[in-house]
Amino acid sequence: MLPKRSVTLICGVSGSGKTTFAFRYLVNVQGVACRFIFDPDGEAAQRLDLPAAATARDLEEDLATGWVIYDPHAMFPGQLPQAFRFFCEWAYEAAGRGPGRKILLIDEVWKYCGPLTIPQELALCIQTGRKRGLETVFCTQRPNRLNEAITNEVSELVCFRLQGENAVRFVDSLAGRPLAAPEMALGSFLSLNLDSGADLRGKVF
Ligand SMILES: Nc1ncnc2c1ncn2[C@@H]1O[C@H](COP(=O)(O)OP(=O)(O)O)[C@@H](O)[C@H]1O
Ligand SMILES: [Mg+2]
To answer: How far is the CA of 93 from the centre of ligand 1 (A)?
Structure first.
């Protein structure tokens, strides 16, 4: 049987708790064969205190540890879009090598796609990844600037404090009910499972 779709979208203003939520999820999730994190700013390596993979060989070696944190600068100096496509393609391929759940985290995903464009390697991870057990987690401060290849597939919507009429309206329409609360405290979130309708309120700090 095909695993259930699992595309998590974490929205919120800068400093609201998105990355903290994503990292904590990746640390706490049970029974995952591997996590893949695109880490151009070095934030994941620093905050998770794990080594980053800088070469193709590092990527292969880190796969066995269950944590692949990719620093693209050595392989793709000054070529972030190319690096992003490479990593999505590599993660998709690596996810197909063995059984079990895998999770691809793309923080601040609005940097790599727009309403009219999305790298096909990322679209493949979202649309076909689940056949390989590959789940995706995205963070964004601009939910209304994402591509439909992502927004049409969202199964879990996690909403921290949002700002801007368009962002709030977009999240509410995706949720099918008022969800985005601009006055929410930083660190607090409201999460909605779009398949089951179950919701959850919480705090990451
Ligand atoms: N390197 C870090 N290590 C531990 N905590 C951090 C680090 N950077 C930020 N934080 C904490 O996380 C908060 C910001 O949350 P974060 O999840 O990074 O927000 P967002 O991703 O929504 O911009 C900061 O106020 C700080 O308390
Ligand atoms: Mg962040």
So the answer is: 31
Q: Which ligand is nearest to the CA of 44?
A: 1
Distance 108 CA to ligand 2 centre (A): 7
**Cα 16 versus chain centre, distance:** 16
Distance from the Cα of residue 73 to its chain's centroid: 20
Tell me how long the chain is: 205
CATH topology of domain 7-203: Rossmann fold (3.40.50)
* Cα 189–Cα 151–Cα 19 angle in degrees, nearest 5: 40
Residues with CB under 5 A from ligand 2 (ion): 19
* pTM of this structure: 0.96
What pLDDT, in 10s, does the model give residues 170-192?
999 999 999 988 899 999 999 99
What residues are in contact with ligand 1 under a 6 Å CB criterion?
Answer: 12, 14-20, 46-47, 205
- The protein residue whose alpha carbon is closest to atom 7 in ligand 1 is 47
Q: State the DSSP string of 155-168.
A: SEEEE----SHHHH
Each residue's pLDDT tens digit, 5-41: 899 999 999 999 999 999 999 999 999 999 999 999 9
